[in-house]
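Sequence and fold
=================
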Amino acid sequence: MKKIYFTLIALLASINMFAQGWPANYSGVMLQGFSWDAYDYSQWTVLEKQADDMKGFIDLVWLPQSGKCIEPNQVMGYKPYYYFNQNSSFGTEAELRSLIAKFKANGIGAIADVVVNHRNTDGWFTFPAETYKGVTYQMLSTDICKNDDGEKTATQAKKEGVSLSQNYDEGTDFGGCRDIDHKSANVQKIIKAYLKFLKEDIGYTGFRYDMVKGFDGSHVADYNDATGVEYSVGEYWDGNDKIESWINRTNKKSAAFDFQFRYNVRDAVNGAANGKVTTSSDWSKLNSNDNLMHDANYRRYAVTFVENHDTQKRSESEQNDPLRKDTIAANAYMLAMPGTPCVFQPHWRAYKQEIKSMIEARKLAGITNMSNYTNKMAQTACFANETTGDKAKLIVVVGNNTKAYTPGADYTQILEGYHYRYYLSKSAETAWCNIPSGEYEAGFKAKLTAVSQNSNAKLVYTTDGTDPTAKSKQVTTGNTINIDNTCTLKVGLLINGTVTGIRTYNYTVKAFEPYTITVYANADQVKNWGSTMCFYAWNSSEKLTGEWPGTAVTATKTLNGKKWYYMDFKIKSKDAIVNIIFNQGNGTGKKQTVDLNAGNSTKYYEITTTMSKGQYTCKDVTAIWAPTGITGTPTISNTTTDNAWYTLSGMKLGKKPAKNGVYIHKGKKVIIR
């Protein structure tokens, strides 16, 4: 009996440890997979295509809120309406599931943006009723905090004879949405069911809790215990002491974003004093001890960042609090320090090659969220820290004059960029290449470095994926080699005839080839719109059809007995995407659809007869009507000639493909060998 008792205690303890906020000695790096209004770059289909490229570098991706909102147009999701309907501005639920599955196959976990401090309603008090696995979940007016929206809700409730909760809001009020009473048993039941749905059904690995200043941290502990989630991070936007207090309120069952770390970086980079930009940088401000990352008792729970969707500059009218320079140096500092770094998507896009190498150096040294560090220099123009990893030591030097600090002879420089340098301790005994694995549009020169305590160490390498031997091609440290084609580079140290410290780099060298997609809108459903439909299309960098209402389209094609308006769009880069609105043109009472995301592949839309906030909704029927859809290959009527070639995914090609494979041409499948 005693044995069973102690076994049960051990089992319960292991479960409790699994649910503890953030893993100890965690070496992973997180990516914020979106920025404000970046719908093009954060579509589930777009992110899924990047999974292979993230593999080995990014361990967690924080996704934007994925539930459907009540607003008709593209929204970021911070005024959530539905919980169990996961069709959002970033894609369909099916696409989300596909993305998360792809991430998991590449060793990447998806972090859900959980917005449960507040919730949108239809009118003042009506929450949606949602049925999941036979159970209907619906919040009530009595689940709304008594003092919601600065007492405005109470005033309205009195007018309508509606009852609210008797509990006051536990934290900061959120205007424009109903603040939820987390003391309510109904609220707790619904949120726990929602979070289990996200983790166990959709497949999320962890949660990012939005605006946790709005409700008590004990509820986060309760929700995490109910779901057994391993990764939890809260957005407690405040100073260090208050963030630590919140972590304690969760019983250390959640990590938190290290806002003070971000402020230290901002002040150092922008040269800010009390949040105001001065004339020059002051890198010594990085030596602050008022952040989570510096505190050995809390750095395990510190998720560090240098920019996010709330601090970035969005427009001239929304300046916010952005880094104004030295973005890459700020990332270099963050990625060499303890805590769990969270890279901002725009920085990843702009400096992917350099950030990948920084992450590689971090992992090579074995730096974790609990590593220790020592300051080596803290001057206005130069700052240096040494972090001790599980495998080696890494020194990061940042500033306007990085040459002001030179480490001892037991270090080798492995990276250098604008206002930053990385030095790896020679005890690492490894080869190093300054070009990380990835896809490149042209050939390049790769610099090879020997990190070794043996000054006579040479470098040997192969480009065919085999391990190098003493007889392989040889170079001295610091020299470059040419990489002109797709290959697997393996480079190792050659010391006294023995090869050790081999590192592998997988390169794909492939020039991007622009291609054309076609967007179709069913003409039969909009006969009352007239004989012309306007296509208004855009992406994040340009208007593809000019000013509103766009381009008038009269040409149609008949596919499988249905008539379609259509327009071709050229995809000019890997990140290019097409957003579109079908409309009737200018004028009072003219009809239009909601914003649609056609992505970067051929799409077919049917316009429904229902409206949302005065705009017609659309159904993406690509799977049905595309050339390889489930109804079979559609034929094109004799009145229309389509000589284009299509891939099996429906992508329209500009000419007959030279690559072997199966294609669609003139409505039929064609095999090219």
